[in-house]
Amino acid sequence: MTRLKTTIALVAAAMLAGAGAANAQAAKINDAQIAHIAYTAGVIDVEAGQLALKKSKTKAVRDFAENMVRDHKAVNDKALALVKKLKVTPQDNDTSKALAKQAAAKKAELSKLSGAAFDKAYAANEVAFHKTVNGALEKTLIPSAQNAELKSLLETGLKIFQGHEQHAEHVAASLK
């Protein structure tokens, strides 16, 4: 159990470092890069939710995962429609690459777990992930967005994802 907590702490620290990279890059990122970061974060949570739906038997975890898949797909669909409307091509960047790399490592780690160990690790990761993404949205992505429609979509996403963070905290607390 101590090893699991240490692993979760290290992943959370790595994700916060990724948010720090986003903050350091704030003056340099453009709307195309912001769109890619936001989309990447959404894909990551959809994939994590899908993994939870395959591995978990716990109703609270499954319900949460279903919400993550549904909500993040919906926001990503809106983001794709917006970039198409604006004729903007989302642009890969260091922050989105770091998020994807960290998510792949976390997915590999979670894939090895089962039962209560998986549920606890998944819920803890969702809390850390949403704190990181919400912080990046508030402090970097929203303030850096130049297009009003993109900024509005990010603000709407932030409200939804703040609810996800609270839900993840509730699920995590119920699994202890």
Write the layout of secondary structure elements.
Blueprint: H1 2-24, H2 31-55, H3 59-86, H4 94-111, H5 115-144, H6 148-174
Helix pairs in contact: 1-4, 1-5, 2-3, 2-4, 2-5, 3-6, 5-6
Mean pLDDT: 87
The ordered string of helix (H) and strand (E) elements is HHHHHH
How many helices? The count is 6
Briefly note the CATH topology name: Ferritin
Distance between the termini: 12 Å
CATH class: Mainly Alpha
The number of distinct structural domains comes to: 1
Portion of residues in beta strands equals under 5%
Q: Measured on Cα atoms, how large is the radius of gyration?
A: 16 Å
Percent range for helical residues? over 70%
CATH superfamily: Ferritin, core subunit, four-helix bundle
Gross morphology is elongated
Counted beta strands:
0
CATH architecture descriptor text: Up-down Bundle
Largest sheet: none
Low-confidence stretches: 1-27
| Class based on secondary structure composition and strand pairing | mainly alpha
